Amino acid sequence: MELFKIILLVSLIVCAVSVAFTKDLLTSIIIFMSYSLIMCVIWVLLQSPDLAITEAAVGAGVTSILFFVTLKKIRAIRREEQDE
């Protein structure tokens, strides 16, 4: 079990660092979603299921959907500017 916790913590750090250095916004959003899901598992291991559910719903769910919608709107605006 300790090895699993160490793997989770290392992957959490890797996700946090890779979001900062990723240039593609879509990739950043996907990495952010995986960060939230890893945090959700960590909250479960810390025996805090209420925070795990909140992290899964808000972190990986609602926030990621808002990021996807924003990214779609930004790219749509850029396409309209390129057409003119």
Q: Can you lay out the helices and strands and say which pair or pack?
A:
Blueprint: H1 2-21, H2 25-45, H3 49-83
Helix pairs in contact: 1-2, 2-3
- Unreliable residue runs: none
Shape: elongated
Question: How far is the N terminus from the C terminus?
Answer: 58 Å
Number of strands: 0
Strand proportion: under 5%
Helix content: over 70%
How would you characterize the largest beta sheet?
none
Descriptive key words:
single chain; 84 residues
What does this structure look like?
- The chain is mainly alpha-helical and 84 residues long.
- The protein is 90% helix and 0% strand.
- α1 runs antiparallel to α2 (25-45) and α2 packs antiparallel against α3.
Summarize this structure briefly.
The protein is mainly alpha-helical and 84 residues long. It has three helices and no strands. Helix 1 (2-21) runs antiparallel to helix 2 (25-45) and helix 2 (25-45) packs antiparallel against helix 3 (49-83).
